[in-house]
Amino acid sequence: MKLRAVLALCGLLSSTALIACGPPPATNTAKKVGKDVKVDDNAPSALTDIKFQESERGGDPKVVGCADGQREGFADLKQFPTIAGCLGVWDGSLTLRKGPTRKPCGDDLDVCTAPADVCAEGWHVCARDGDYHDLSDRVDDKQCSEGAGPGKFVAAISHVKKKKECAPAPGPTTRYPCLKDGYGAEPVCCGQNCRPGECRDAVWPGQTRISVGKAQGCGSVTSERNGGVLCCQDTEKPAPPAIVAPIDAVPTGSEAPTDAAAPAEDAAPAEDAAPAKGEDNKGE
């Protein structure tokens, strides 16, 4: 009983800041970083201080391209109707080619399960199948750099075909991988904070830009440093050919029916018919 009374008294007095009971509270001390620890020079730059140029809030996601209804890149919908820069947040490192879970996300919505979930229905992460035309057919190199606005927005392709090897300018059927890390693995990028690497021919010959930082390739990106995603509108599939009902063929030639009945095979020709009565002696 006395112990309970003492504890109650301590609680009362502590709440009124008259005395302190028990051991002194622990103080938070900063953890010292060892001298041998260095910032990873290969990490891409962070997006924390970027002031994005955004489109209006509350847009139709299927038109805007971002699941939360607002763009952070390529904000001019009229000038760039089929490509959008969308910002998202996810846990850990994910590949840009991870398939969508159909759970909408974005900086104005929930945390993403996959980077592709920042793209609205009817849109996809640009170049997800390795085809650079998904970018080059929508914007040129200048629009990619300046039209996207501040920040970085990445596509689902690395900028080389093989690590440590700069590939020549792509051909019509060239496809790029989505490498995890290392030289050349960085994803192709649009935005004013993207930079040219040593290999610059992947999409726009001599002008292709990337999210510089070998620690995060296309196959392993964090939202802190590569949370801006390029979303491209799905192309419309051609309509299937109309089904035409078959039309019965019209008989021709000998197959055509006639209104008059065909003469009997044993019928006598007209000139062999017997003369009418009274006409057989007219010629005499």
Automatic annotation (TrEMBL):
Spans annotated as Disordered: 243-284
UniProt feature, compositional bias: Low complexity: 244-276
Signal peptide residues on this chain, from the entry's feature table: 1-20
This protein's UniProt keywords: Signal
Domain of life: Bacteria
Name of the featured protein: Lipoprotein
